[in-house]
Amino acid sequence: MDTRAAQSKLALLALSLLFLPFLQATTSFNYCDKKANYAVKVNGVNISPNPVVRGKPATFNISASTGEAISGGKAVIDVSYFGIHIHQETHDLCEETSCPISVGEFVLSHNQALPAITPPGSYMLKMTLSSSDKELTCISFSFKVSLSASESLVSDS
């Protein structure tokens, strides 16, 4: 490889690292019931890319911890747009993370490609994790949907 090609690749790598914080930033969240003593404590929510680009895959990673082993359960995801409930889906908890979940830290990862016709704007997502006999945790957070990746980089700067 010649020097010019190596310099171009290095410059491209440096530029991509510059935009990495815009593509994967920690999202603030709230517990549904601030007084509840949930068995699962959420440490953070990462969305990549952020904002989500309609028609393209997005990953929602929720880092959490638990003080008790969890053998299974379900994750219910409710999505609202301008306060209007527009979508609900239920997943087996063991499809979103490996089960059984041992005491300690774990990551729940959900991949989703929003339809290309998804309107841009701010959305609210509520996620409830439950086992067969109790609610393990419930959080909500907002996320944005943009028309394209280039638009989302411009709107963040």
Automatic annotation (TrEMBL):
CDD domains per record: PG-PI_TP (cd00917)
MD-2-related lipid-recognition domain: residues covered: 29-143
Highest taxon in the source lineage: Eukaryota
Gene Ontology terms describing biological process: intracellular sterol transport
SMART domains, alphabetized: ML
MF terms in GO: sterol binding
Keyword Signal: yes
Gene3D superfamilies the record matches: 2.60.40.770
Segment forming the signal sequence: 1-25
Alphabetic keyword roster: Signal
InterPro entries (alphabetical): Ig_E-set, ML_dom, ML_PG-PI_TP, NPC2-like
Name under which the protein is recorded: MD-2-related lipid-recognition domain-containing protein
The species this protein was found in: Corchorus olitorius
Organism classification: Eukaryota, Viridiplantae, Streptophyta, Embryophyta, Tracheophyta
